[in-house]
């Protein structure tokens, strides 16, 4: 695997950073995960905009211009195998003597790697559990500080489930690494954007595709009780797309199989994706 690190393209084994890097010491950094289909970066401007927002939130100036980002990302894709790839990029506040305050001179660390994105078989659905959202109040920042997400996801995995659905003050927020949709009375509902969820690129694309197809959907708060009324629940992300939850906390959702709206939306989403991706 060829990766990018601070101006150089090099084999993964040769990519080294200081142990004093503030990413390592404090998780002081942000990241993005961008899918690339057939070598083309998908929804790139949306991902770069979210990156900009994350960087602004942590007061770290973007070290690269948009065209520099595009050149680096495209080079990483070209140097790695896989028709479809998942690009991971991370920026930290760089190496400095350990001190919570920002260093006077900041030399950010910029890292990009790629992983082959295998085409997803049609989902048969997964199990999930609900958990109290123990994360901080800035979940809209795509921060590399993911310990709470990791512990919550691990709690799900330990019980034989795939994802943890996070609840805060009696409302559904998102998954440990995904956004959430519920289907109630045939309407797809996802929580509105706030400081408590990551503004998912896939989430936005689903809403856009459903609106374009005139399928009922809305952004609204989801009280926990609505999970009981939901005939379908989905989790969404750039790498997993749309995955139906067929069992939540041991209770069967809908028929216990991927639902009708899910199949319909998957098809629309794939068509829409194909169209966007050929127009980009
Ligand atoms: N995670 N919410 C959280 C907390 C996430 O970590 C993710 C994605 C999403 C979905 O966002 P998007 O549709 O833009 O991928 C929502 C990535 C894939 C990850 O951490 O690997």
Describe the structure.
The protein has about 280 residues and is an alpha+beta fold. It has two domains: about 120 residues, D-amino Acid Aminotransferase, Chain A, domain 1; about 150 residues, D-amino Acid Aminotransferase, Chain A, domain 2, CATH 3.20.10.10. The protein has seven helices and 15 strands. Strands 7, 8, 9, 10, 11, 12, 13, 14 and 15 form a nine-stranded mixed beta sheet that branches. A six-stranded antiparallel beta sheet has the order 2-1-6-5-3-4. It is globular and about 55 Å long. Bound molecules: N-(5'-phosphopyridoxyl)-D-alanine (PDD). The site of N-(5'-phosphopyridoxyl)-D-alanine (PDD) has 15 residues, from helix 5 and strand 13.
Summary keywords:
single chain, 280 residues, alpha+beta, D-amino Acid Aminotransferase, Chain A, domain 1, D-amino Acid Aminotransferase, Chain A, domain 2, 2 domains, 30% strand, binds N-(5'-phosphopyridoxyl)-D-alanine
């Amino acid at each position: 695997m060829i990766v990018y690190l601070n101006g150089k393209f090099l084999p993964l084994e040769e990519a080294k950073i200081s142990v004093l890097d503030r990413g390592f010491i404090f998780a002081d950094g942000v990241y993005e995960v961008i899918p690339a289909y057939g070598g083309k970066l998908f929804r790139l401007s949306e991902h770069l905009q979210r990156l900009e927002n994350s960087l602004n939130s942590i007061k770290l100036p973007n070290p690269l211009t948009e065209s520099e980002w595009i050149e680096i990302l495209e080079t990483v894709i070209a140097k790695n195998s896989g028709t479809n790839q998942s690009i991971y990029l991370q920026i930290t506040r760089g190496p400095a003597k350990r001190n919570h305050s920002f260093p006077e001179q900041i030399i950010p660390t910029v890292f990009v790697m790629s992983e082959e994105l295998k085409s997803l078989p049609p989902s048969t659905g997964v199990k999930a559990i609900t958990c109290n959202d123990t994360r901080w109040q800035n979940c809209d920042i795509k921060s590399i500080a993911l310990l709470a997400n990791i512990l919550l996801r691990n709690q799900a995995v330990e019980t034989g489930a795939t994802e943890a659905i996070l609840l805060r003050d009696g409302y559904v927020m998102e998954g440990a690494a995904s956004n959430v949709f519920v289907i109630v009375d045939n309407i797809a509902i996802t929580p509105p954007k706030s400081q408590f969820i990551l503004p998912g690129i896939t989430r936005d694309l689903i809403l856009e595709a459903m609106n374009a197809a005139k399928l009922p959907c809305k952004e609204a708060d989801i009280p926990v009780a609505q999970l009981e009324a939901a005939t379908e629940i989905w989790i969404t992300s750039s790498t997993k797309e749309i995955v139906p939850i067929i069992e939540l906390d041991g209770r069967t959702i809908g028929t216990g199989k991927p639902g009708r709206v899910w199949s319909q939306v998957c098809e629309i989403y794939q068509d829409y994706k194909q169209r966007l991706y050929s127009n980009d």
